[in-house]
Amino acid sequence: MRAIITSILIFLSLVSYAQEVNITGTITAEGNPLPGANILVKGEDRKSVSDFDGNYEIRAAKLDTLVFSFVGFDTQEIIVGDAALINVAMLGSPELEEVIVTASGVKREKRAVGYATSDASIVIRGKVSGVAVTEGSSHPSRYNDLAYGQLTAGEINDLEKWSEYYEIFSSGEAQKVAGRWGFIHKNKIDISLKNKDHTPVANTMVALYKNKKQLMKGRTDVNGSLVLYKGAHNLSDRFLLQVYSEGTVVGKSISGGQQAVEITLASSIAATNTVDVLFAVDATGSMGDEIAYLKSELKNIMNRIDAQIAQKRVALTVYRDHGDSYVTRSIDFKEDVNEVKDFLSQQDANGGGDYEEAVEEALKVSLSQSWNVDAKAKLLFLMLDAPPHYTEQNVELIKSQIKKAQEMGVKIIPVVASGANKEVEFLMRSFSVATNGTYVFLTDDSGIGNDHMEPTTEDVKVEKLNDLIVRLIEKYAGVESAL
């Protein structure tokens, strides 16, 4: 009998230790709450991310080990035991004690260790928990409203570095990724539209035909420029460009080998001075390490374009994945950026679970907003760290949305965050090339967030993310830079 009782007690004890409970706590660094820290149950798929105030919640059993990590800090492992409240003070890793970013940007060679800086550059120094600006400071850091100007990023404009892009996407993994999603950009032609007085003609539809069949069409940007793609062809193929202006059609024959063409119009309708900017943000749990910082950067960006661009509208889409509490949420274009900032403040990172997310739904919702067809610039910044689910239906949906963006004249500018793989990079570079945009990626230089993928390119110039995005908005809006 005693053996039976002992066995029962041991069994009940094991059941007790295996039972999962909610573990909560606060993660701090140097006495301040640390948002975006990662918490996971060792050996399990369960994970969580600390919120703006450093608070977290995760289910675990007494015998489980919780792993706390954040880039630039020592990883800590704690056995749960009887504790229901576990607070953690993160300690910095000595090998990542300091980063240096110059205000004019840092240009570094691929895989280079050091940074080439100019003596005239303003040097901004900070610890890996975030770059604390000592010159040209933003505003005091508060973890419910983090200091902006901390995230670092680079840009690859494949249209301006076409030979490198073409070499990368002509073979290997890049070609495979682009091909499986239906993106083959070959034999581009640079189109320039001008008036008789040689001024650029913006927001004008141009269609490209091959053997009397339309291949694609798009709208010129503020510089009167547009890139279209002839694709594979042979010597017998005949190509025609048609420009739609003031109810008339202007046609121009081009050769298969022609790489650029300039067309002069007798008259045209000028585009309005309005600029439409939409931010689409992945709000799944994997973005938790950086979304708090992204929100501060976006608010700063909105404030700056509000001050520098007289006629503008801003919109926002946040998205997760099918099966989450929501797939997409959005606020349509507003002239008052404060309305969009308030909407942004209410968003957090949660959900997801698998790697892929509902990128196709984000595109569909974003492109269905009330874009101003006459705006001189239409920009969609797509911020994400994961690709869409690869299905036949999603391939067709994404291709249809990219075609819609082309015809609307919306430039898609991906902004790729930590945790992304090469499929994300190569697919997003296809998005930007197809819509005459550019590709942006966050870097490790800020010390914020998890590891960031090194892009496939010859050289990288590192800038502060908010400056980079404002620079791009001004560039595509034809506004003289105020940086």
TrEMBL record:
Keywords noted in UniProt: Secreted, Signal
Domain VWFA: 276-460
Keyword presence, Signal: yes
Subcellular location: Secreted
Keyword Oxidoreductase on entry: no
Any Pfam family matching the protein: CarbopepD_reg_2
Broad class of the protein's primary localization: secreted
Matches recorded under CDD domains: vWFA
Span of the signal peptide: 1-18
Designated name of the protein: Carboxypeptidase-like regulatory domain-containing protein
Taxonomic source organism: Dokdonia genika
